[in-house]
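U., I forgot to send this yesterday:
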Amino acid sequence: MTDSWTARLWQRAEPTYRAILMHPFLRGMTSGELDAACFRYYVAQDAHYLRDYARALAVVGAKAPSHTLTGMFARHAAETVAVELALHETLLPQLGLDPAALDEIAVSPTTTAYTSYLLATSYGGTFAEGLAAILPCYWIYQRVGAELVAQGSPDPRYQAWIDTYAGDAFAATVAEVLQVADAAGAELRPSEHERAVRHFETTSRYEWMFWDAAWRQEGWPV
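Result:
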């Protein structure tokens, strides 16, 4: 693992991941002191994000080098809709949000930028580039869930979110994608390798920005 492609990718993202763990949004989840308005904002934006993330997964799968991988990413796209949006259907009413009214909530600048980058890279790049771009959402969430579950949260809404990403089923999904990434990374030419690494670093930073936008309850300046 120490010499694998994903291990080298993680080395590049490690400072961003450490900054994510220290962010007051996540620290507030484990302490229970996070303002519910921030979490409400986050869940609403995440619902917007997941729609385009599922599309990006489907596009990456369409470019996969084998029918088996195409099927895997199609399954993951379906699971994103079925599993994670089911969590939102539970959390949204608890937060005073009507799931049917999500389209009336403006998509934030950060959500717009992040999903636009994912879709542009998935459509315009190679399979490996698209895979590198979608990987942080899988991997960072799994790592964050594993880190936070040890601390827990006194707020049942935050604990439900933590449990979703700390579960064995999600860990198995991430392990499956990492195995695919290692195989893809081993075949890359130097120029494509550098592009893929840049995509991975960029979307890792977008993960930090997504939580930060929720912390600030970011809006459009004009």
